[in-house]
Write a structure and sequence with these properties.
The protein is built from 5 helices and no strands. By secondary structure, the protein is mainly α. It has one domain.
Length: about 100
Amino acid sequence: MAKLMIIGPIAIGLILLLLFITFKSVRMALLVIFNLPFALIGGVFALYVSQLYLSVATSVGFVILFGVAVLNCVVLVSRIAQLREEGISVEAAVVQGSRTGYGPC
């Protein structure tokens, strides 16, 4: 667990760096990263409801959960950016991007 406490922030920092390289925007990268606490809350709630404790296996599950959450958000933010490049307003791009089935951010 002590190693995970060190590796976790390093992994999130590397993900933030890769997102910055992908989007060329700190704002977009932070938007994706700010999705992680919501995934964490959902995972902790699932552990509580199922009456399980935090183990190595559930920690690996959290890593996978973070990966899926980041992936969904990257796809959604990319779609909204694509719609913005087509000249659609921010509000319309968010609504249309969310309705096209690319997943929640």
